[in-house]
Amino acid sequence: MTTHRAATPPQPGMTDGGPTAASSVPAVSPLASRAFEMVMAPASIHVAQARGTTAAVLRQWALPDAPAEDAQLVVSELVTNAISHGSGAVGLRVLYGNHQLRIEVTDGSTTPAKRRRAGANDLGGRGLLLVAHLSHRWGVADSGRTTYAVIPTLTEAPPCRRTAQPTLDPTC
Predict the structure, then answer these.
(1) What pLDDT, in 10s, does the model give residues 13-54?
(2) Domain Histidine kinase/HSP90-like ATPase: where (predicted)?
């Protein structure tokens, strides 16, 4: 069984309790923080559901394709690890604000997730390596119960610096 909860800032003129005067609620900027959470039983079938729910929410938030795809893979890996190596219900929380996504996966185990070196013939052991490559940073919190990853959401290329030296970069 899974439960979902999505949170976005209230729109002008609306609150959780119903309509309000538009002047009492500040306008929401497109970069306002957003969050969603879901809790699931530790069953492998829920990995695809967590990935699909994340994809749907990120589309609703109009996140660019590249960070949304990275986020889906990170969710898949972290939820799989929590189901395979953790204990109890698995919680997923995705927070969006300040040009980044923070993905948190929580379970009941206090054993922190650790990257390991997988052998050429190993079927597993590469998940946290993928998470490390796709995210700006990752780590553990809450005494090892939560593994998180932070993915930047800005996809524009930084402006080229003009230097005295000619560049071979075709984007400049």
Answers:
(1) 333 333 333 333 333 344 457 999 999 999 999 999 999 999
(2) 45-144
**Residues 20-29: tens digit of each pLDDT:** 333 333 333 4
Residue 89 buriedness (CB in 10 A; 0-12 / 13-18 / 19+): middle
C-alpha to C-alpha distance for 130 and 81, rounded to whole angstroms: 12
Query: How many angstroms separate the CA atoms of 20 and 40, rounded?
Result: 35
SS3 26: coil
Q: Please identify which residue in the block is written with the tokens 């070196």.
A: 117
Please state, as a whole number, how many other Cβ atoms lie within 10 Å of the Cβ of residue 142: 12
Q: How far apart are CA 151 and CA 138, in angstroms?
A: 9
- Kindly give the residue spans of alpha helices, DSSP state H, lying in the chain: 45-60, 65-85, 127-134
pLDDT computed for residue 106 by the predictor: 97
What pLDDT, in 10s, does the model give residues 132-166?
Answer: 999 999 999 999 999 999 999 986 544 444 444 44
- pTM of this structure: 0.72
50 HSE (CA, 13 A, CB side): 33
